[in-house]
Design brief:
- The chain has six helices and eight strands.
- It is an alpha/beta fold.
- Strands 1, 2, 3, 4, 5, 6, 7 and 8 form an eight-stranded mixed β-sheet that branches.
- The radius of gyration is 17 Å and the shape is globular.
- The two termini are about 30 Å apart.
- Bound molecules: guanosine-5'-diphosphate (GDP) and magnesium ion (MG).
- The site of guanosine-5'-diphosphate has 19 residues, from helix 1.
């Protein structure tokens, strides 16, 4: 059954978007999660519009499809269509640049205005490997997240610290909401798509844990 994780083989597809100021590490978080890689040099866009990765939660396959902003964030010109149909929004700041923390309210406002009401928001304090240059302490991040009803993680796209955790925990929360019938799945505006029944995979084998590495363009 080599084809067990093929193109259509998922039970649920969850659309994630990543926002935050330029250079906080959004593209590298995506790269780390979908390819296990990191790039030192800054690139406006890494030529990938989205990546995806499969996760197994309670015997179902969740395909996490993550959309990256590829540079538009410089002008805060990310359009409504970007947020549309998103199940989860990762709002990222850089713990070594306070100014990126101070922009959060704007990002949250944009996200709330343009995402479905059901969107799960996650606050991500990235670059936690650079603790010696820290300008935002962890407690402050956590309090901000609590105040806005967000999950919170400090991550490092460089070392990978907490990156898997962030996706796993947010997807687990979404999976729980799916089971509680929180979403209207007939209507994919909530950013969740059910897999084709025929292609749904009944799990229980190790293969299910294999990651699928997919890029968008290029
Ligand atoms: P984006 O503009 O938000 O997509 O940011 P990038 O992912 O392109 O990263 C911007 C710069 O920060 C690059 O030079 C990355 O190598 C660096 N960077 C990203 N994440 C981390 C991290 O977790 N730790 C460290 N030390 N550098 C990072
Ligand atoms: Mg980028």
């Amino acid at each position: 059954m080599d084809e067990s994780i093929g193109e259509m083989n998922f039970n649920y597809l969850l659309k994630y978007v990543i926002v935050g100021d330029a250079s906080v590490g959004k593209s590298n978080l995506l790269l780390r999660y979908t390819h296990g890689e990191f790039r030192e040099e800054y690139q406006l866009t890494i030529g990938v519009e989205f990546g995806s990765n499969n996760l197994v939660i309670n015997n179902s396959i969740y395909r996490i499809q993550i959309w990256d902003t590829a540079g538009q964030e410089n002008f805060r010109s990310i359009t409504r269509s970007y947020y549309k149909n998103s199940a989860c929004a990762l709002i990222v700041y850089d713990i070594t640049r306070r100014v990126s923390f101070e922009s959060l309210s704007d990002w949250i406002e944009d996200c709330k205005n343009s995402s479905p009401k059901t969107v799960v928001m996650v606050l991500v304090g990235n670059k936690c490997d650079l603790a010696q240059n820290r300008e935002v302490n962890e407690e402050e991040g956590r309090e901000f997240a609590e105040k806005h009803g967000m999950l919170f993680f400090e991550t490092s796209a460089k070392t990978g610290q907490n990156v898997e955790e962030l996706f796993k925990q947010s997807a687990t929360l979404i999976a729980k909401k799916i089971k509680e019938n929180y979403y209207d799945l007939e209507n994919d505006s909530c950013g969740i798509k059910k897999g084709d029944e025929e292609n749904n995979v009944v799990l229980g084998n190790a293969k299910a844990n294999e990651k699928e590495k997919k890029g968008g363009c290029c």
